[in-house]
Amino acid sequence: MIPPRAPVSHQPLRQLKNRIATGLITAGGIGVLLAILAIGVFLVWETLPLLGLDQTFALVKLSPLAWGTLKAALAAMLFALPIALGAAMYSALFMSARLRSRIKPALEMMEAIPGVVIGFIAGLVLAPWVERHLASTLVVLVWLPLSAGLAGVLWHLLSSRLRQGLPLSWAGLWLVPWLAGMLMLALWLAPLLETMLPGGDLRQWLEQRWGLDYATRNALVVGIAMGFAVIPSIYALAEDALADVPHALMEGAQALGASRWQALWKVALPAAGPSIFSAVMIGAGRAVGETMIVLMASGNTALFSASPFEGMRSMAAAIAIELPEASPGGLTYRYLILAALVLFIFTFLVNTLAEMVRLRMRRRYQKAGRY
Amino acid sequence: MRRQFTASSLRLLDRLWPWLCAASVALSLLMLTALLSLLLVRGLGHFWPATLEEVTLRSGEVVTGEAIRETSLPQEAGAERLYFTGNRDVSGANWRWLALDDIVQRTTPEALVRLERTPWGDFIGRLVGIDAEGEQLEGQPAWEYLTAALALPASQRPSGELVLATADGQILRQPLASISHATAPNAMTWWQKTSAWGQRVWQFLSEGPRAANTSGGVWPAIFGTLLMVILMSVIVTPFGVLAAIYLNEIAHQNRLTRLVRIGVRNLAGVPSIVYGVFGLGVFVYGIGGSLDSWFFSNTLPSPTFGTGGLLWASLTLALLTLPVVIVATEEGLARIPDAQREGAVALGATRLEMLMRIVLPMAVPAMLTGVILAVARAAGEVAPLMLVGVAKLAPQMPVDGEFPYLHLERKFMHLGYHLFDTAFHGEDVQAAMPLVYATALLLVLIVLVLNLTAIFLRHYFRRQRGNEC
Amino acid sequence: MLASLDSANASQAPVTHFPAEHRALSIERFSLAYAGKPALRELSLDVPRHRVTAFIGPSGCGKSTLLRAINRLHDLNESVEHSGRIELEGQDIYAPRTNVTELRRRVGMVFQTPNPFPMSIYENVAFGLRLQHRLPKRQRDDIIEWALTSAALWDEVKDRLHRSAWQLSGGQQQRLVIARTLAVQPDVLLLDEPASALDPISTLKIEELIRNLKSQLTLILVTHNMQQAARVSDYTAFMHGGELVEYGTTDQVFTNPRLQRTENYITGRMT
């Protein structure tokens, strides 16, 4: 009962359609990729005329901006690195799988919070508060890590029944109220500590003793705000890197008598080191290019100052403020585009480097896992 | 002895460092919840009809207003409380700090009303009466007349004049037409307050800003954001998908493709302001300037397309989110087993037929995820928009009844920029703060919901595929 | 006539060629290199029409590569180079004027793991038909029923033709893939270890199906399962290192191999 073979129809048309569509997709795809490439070409093209000019203006114009960018990024990294890496180590090595599957997306949600919102909170809520409660802020920054250690000491003193109720693998969650309580304690204690200073006012004391000026919007505020914004990206990548380290490696080291600390330093960190480094680089790239937070929380004063209590102006913020007013083709316009080019090249190189390190590490572990 | 010391300190370290790490997670969570709850409380709390106080000072002066917050004074000089008093036309200021020591008495009389007026901002005081079309009403009937009149659409409202009294006894007359809302919060029941809260949230979402962004709503900004994001998706989706198909299905897989792939991935990490610079230089000054000199030379030197606008903003953000869409789509394409492609080809399908009938339908969830992520990124992005097209207060909406209905060259309002602008360049930042909080909350909610949708979609489709295979 | 061919070949020295009227496929000095590494070297053999021919050999011997070359599936991969000829019913399939999609319709292929498309059972079988012709629904339904019946699947799925094909069991999926290929009425059916991912009962069903199908078309079976080759095939080609070692009737190759290498492999002394 083989049915008669139906006549084959519209064959040439199918082939033609296929050729045309393949051609279109190829053209479109290459076009899109070229359009992306055009960004770099445009930036270089617009800054070429600067080559023949006297470079002192560039130095005067750009070096405070470069300094401000570095200072902001450095402040952010100082705040973000310990928290992000600590969180990554904890969730890769100790956290219970169930908690991890909840916490990871929650922390990744942090990344989605728009910079303009963080900048608003930093500039209009955090900055005035810190200005009024500088001593409390500093006390909190020191006290919180200490209180975490205290929690550890107390936990070891607990009875084993209580310890089972508060396991380390869930500590990421149940430490939240503890930290909140410790925060309250610090806020209550700080004014008392401040009165012990000569003059009873930290800001005055800083000014008289060390000659430090205090600006409402300063590097401290920028560091906290931008650090908050950078934590999730460093955390996510570093966590992946640590979770990729084969468990057998860590267990093997501990079976040989190494403590968890030694196992981490001698085994996990060297193995995941390059990937963690690339996570840090990507975080730094974000911090360097972030515009809105610096714009809103830094005061935008182009200063050369290393003081954490003074503001700065970053390249990205300068572009956002000055470029719309600069006349196209003018000197300022070109210098701002040069700043954009610097940002572009820096972030692109940093990310490429990080990505290549990451891919290489991943391949290595896939091999290690197989054999 | 020394060895013992290092050994014991090492043991201590070994015990404590997990706790420091755990505290990092806890601290991140704490900061996240603190930020979100601050936005929630301040953003939503503003719409709750606040109690109005009548405060008698030691000097005998009487002040009416809404208590905002208290601060302690330096050198143990006591504390101050900030009141929103309104009545800028009478007293010259909306705000007043009162030292707690000066306050003799605080009462909350039910007769206090709060009126939102178009010039001068809010009025807080008492309603004495209404002169409406020859009729003269006083007391409760006047209040009822006022609320009934305000419930009508603006064009049908009767003309009339309110007689108002401030706390210190000054009488002022106010035309009814200038009032937009009236509440007497102290006389409201809990249920009335709740429904008033709902109404005010709705007004926030559906009305335009008033009184230099210090009251009213953000509808034009929501609309502008939506329109820009929709235009952007319309541009970025086909191009992103096209580039992904080219990279994954057609291009020779060699070192060059791998490099291009890494490059595209890394463009997602290039600061958004750089895209803004590109948009300004190429789209606005380059293409827009040329368009102006070719087609709109009669209106020069005032630019038509040669200045920031809806089209250029959408294009810039499309470029910015292109890597997101390409990467997500490519991930989806790569996850489709080659067996599916070979199966189709072995049945005599051409490459186009294989792509259209087998590969693309299977990659749709990934594309959708990519576009949603792109939209989430674009909705929260402000820096490039400052260069290519937002406006503080757009005089015209980008869509109207005038041909060609959609005005791509017009400037538009954007939630994120609106937030930045009101918070940093507003006339009365203090008065605008509650609305800024509400705007920030709205923006965060939009972005979070979009991201959650993307995460959910990705999980859902991954699991579904896992079951079926 | 074919029966006489089989008996004639049973005893004689190396068969690699058949008279033109019996050969469906003729491979001449065919070589293929993958990214510069040779995978097939100077292969020559004829495949008889309406018979089951098995390619056996250790993994990596090139049997699957040869199968894919017959369907020109290597076209999807740019780094493949080849030389020599493969003729389907006298036409060089690598000639520049050959229509590849038409070739692939005439040479059906079934893969190691079942790969039904993510659509209904009906749509899976209709996929190839829709590409080739615009048929009235009645006629298409008839062909689909015929294809599913030929693949011994009709009775199991006739009540749920519009359910997802991914809900079928592995064995059913593989038979669906065969039905999908039969629906476009190919001349040759290539089977690349079609039962290696299936349980024993499904394997038996597939084998029975293969035996029944040879009245309709020419089948080529790649397998690493010697018993399966012995049970199912009429002719067997033993390949090793990209070369054809021995080719003959299955009886002869399995009971009386000419070469020591073949015997070692068949008896399991070499894998």
Question: What can you see in these coordinates?
Answer:
- The complex is a heterotrimer of chains A (371), B (469) and C (271).
- With 371 residues, chain A is mostly helical.
- Chain A is built from 14 helices and no strands.
- Chain A is flat and about 80 Å long.
- The mean pLDDT of chain A is 82.
- By secondary structure, chain B is of the alpha+beta class.
- Chain B has three domains: 55 residues; 75 residues, no CATH class; 250 residues, MetI-like (MetI-like fold).
- Chain B has 13 helices and 13 strands.
- In chain B, a hairpin with a 5-residue loop joins β6 and β7.
- In chain C, β4 and β5 form a beta hairpin.
- In chain C, the strands form two sheets. A six-stranded mixed beta sheet of chain C has the order 6-7-8-3-9-10, sandwiched between helices. Chain C has a four-stranded antiparallel beta sheet with strand order 2-1-4-5, covered by helices on one side.
- The model of chain C has no long low-confidence stretch (mean pLDDT 83).
- Chain C is an alpha/beta fold.
- Chain C starts with a helix and ends in a 5-residue tail after the last helix.
- Chains in contact: A-B, A-C, B-C.
- Chains B and C meet through α9 and α10 of B and α3, α4 and α7 of C.
- Chain A: This is ABC transporter permease subunit.
- Chain B: This is Phosphate ABC transporter permease PstA.
- Chain C: This is Phosphate ABC transporter ATP-binding protein.
- Chain C: Keywords: ATP-binding, Nucleotide-binding.
- Chain C: It comes from Vreelandella aquamarina.
Short key terms for the protein model shown above:
heterotrimer; A: 371 residues; mainly alpha; 14 helices; B: 469 residues; alpha+beta; MetI-like fold; 3 domains; six-stranded antiparallel beta sheet; five-stranded antiparallel beta sheet; 15% strand
- Kindly state the percentage of residues in helix of chain C: 25-40%
Our measurement of the CA-to-CA distance between the termini of chain B, rounded to an integer number of angstroms, reads 64 Å
Broad shape of chain B: globular
- Residue runs with pLDDT of under 50 for 5 or more positions of chain C: none
